[in-house]
Amino acid sequence: MTDTLLVPFGAAPVPSSGAEVERRIGDLLATLAQPGVGGLGGVRVAAELDGADIASLRVDASGLTVDDQRLKAVSAAAPPVGVVHRVPGTIRRLEVVAHPVSVRGVPAQVDIAASDVRFDWVVGADDQVYVEVRQPSDAEPVVGTARISVAHRDLVAAVRTVLTGVLQEKGFTLTALDLDLQNRGPRALAVRADAKVQRSFLRAGVTVTASASIDRSLVLEVGDTTISSSNPIVEGFLGPFRSKVAAEADRKIDLAAQLPAGVTVSDVSIAAGDDVVISVTLG
Fold first, then answer.
1. What's the rounded Cα separation, in Å, for the pair 25 and 9?
2. pTM (predicted TM-score)
3. 3-class DSSP state for residue 281?
4. 147 Cβ partners below 8 Å, 6+ apart?
5. Measured between alpha carbons, how far is 93 from 144 in angstroms, rounded to an integer?
6. pLDDT per residue over 166-188, tens digit each?
7. Which of 8, 48, 133, 193 has its CA 20 to 30 A from that of 201?
């Protein structure tokens, strides 16, 4: 990782009004467009400029959709440029909301807030303005919160879609699905899915269980996956696939690796009810 991120921000000079900051952020978002991402044009930005500081910046991405599984990584970062001069600034209050954002058909409510995000206004030798985001440090940490919420019914719908495809490949039809999530502490869940399947004249129940947890280091771990059926014929069909299902489901995902350099997590929790809510405290 590099210590800074240089983001192109239009022609010099440095923006002198909140409206100009809003327009340039809109232009920047347009560069991230690609197939499978919808709604970028509807992102709303509100900014208040106070000298070199951005007193408040609010980005409302409600309605954004990400549906294509073949998305390519697109970076807004610019290559190195010759620097004519730079002016330090601070985003005193940053908010990013999406009510909702849809990721592969699953709508999620997103609320992110941060304070004292430090950056530099950079004017390059090419007469362009860049925003250079400074890496947080112990002396200058990013402090904030993030909350992501998904309705239980939308999770069930997503699981149903995935299971329907998997079962159809094996000649089965999914006729019913119940998904139960129970907290096992502030950062762990027990997962149980009960499905009814049909193949020709054969009808049976299939149960999948697993555990999921996320630690203070933001490592998500899914494990203890089992799959079984009360019907001995279906149980026989499932036998060859048990190890494959467990291998696909049981895994660790380092979510912290997706955070910018220097951003630290001080607390994280997950709660299951009508909504599944993940809350993160930064700094």
1. 8
2. 0.83
3. strand
4. 109, 110, 111, 112, 277, 278, 279, 280
5. 10
6. 778 878 899 999 999 999 989 99
7. 193
Using DSSP, state whether 172 is helix, strand or coil: coil
Residues 6 or more apart whose Cβ sits within 8 Å of residue 41: 30
Q: Contact, 56 vs 92, CB < 8 A? A: yes
C-alpha 246: how far from chain center: 24
* Start-end of H helices in 143-271: 152-169, 232-238, 242-249
Given a contact cutoff of 8 angstroms between Cβ atoms, the answer to whether 224 and 249 are in contact is no
Report whether 181 contacts 189 (CB < 8 A): yes
Dump pLDDT digits (tens) for 237-271: 777 767 767 776 777 878 777 676 667 888 889 99
- Cα–Cα nearest to 169, from 194, 196, 195, 199: 199
